[in-house]
Write a structure and sequence with these properties.
The chain is α+β, with helices and mostly antiparallel strands. The chain has a single domain (5-85), classed as YaeB-like fold. Helix content is 34%, strand content 31%. The protein has three helices and five strands. It has helices at residues 5-13, 21-30, 34-43, and strands at residues 17-18, 45-50, 58-64, 70-78, 83-85. Strands 1-5-4-3-2 form a five-stranded mixed sheet. A hairpin with a 5-residue loop joins strand 3 (58-64) and strand 4. The radius of gyration is 12 Å and the shape is globular. It starts with a helix and ends with a strand.
């Protein structure tokens, strides 16, 4: 299943998002806030699809931030629970 922005943003609006420890740790090391990651999910574009990734389909999103540097967010989507995981 390929992911689309509508599916990702629907789960995000419903607050069905799981923040994984590893992702939070890496974000903290890089000075990236949750708000910035959410901004990528809202305003960014899908640049890579991994529909056969396990345990859930994944995609890579990107958005150019205010300093014109790209911010990338990798996420998985649990269709059964309609949840995104970062």
């Amino acid at each position: 299943m390929a992911l689309d922005l509508t599916t990702i943003q629907r789960a995000l609006r419903a607050r069905r998002i799981t923040w994984r420890y590893h992702a939070l740790l890496r974000a903290q090391e890089r000075g990236i806030t949750r708000a910035q990651a959410v901004q990528v999910l809202i305003e960014g574009e899908i640049i890579e699809q991994r529909p056969r990734a396990k345990p859930y389909p994944q995609c890579l999103m990107m958005k150019a931030m205010s300093d014109n540097r790209p911010l990338y967010v990798s996420l998985g989507y649990n269709q059964r629970g309609d949840r995104i995981g970062l």
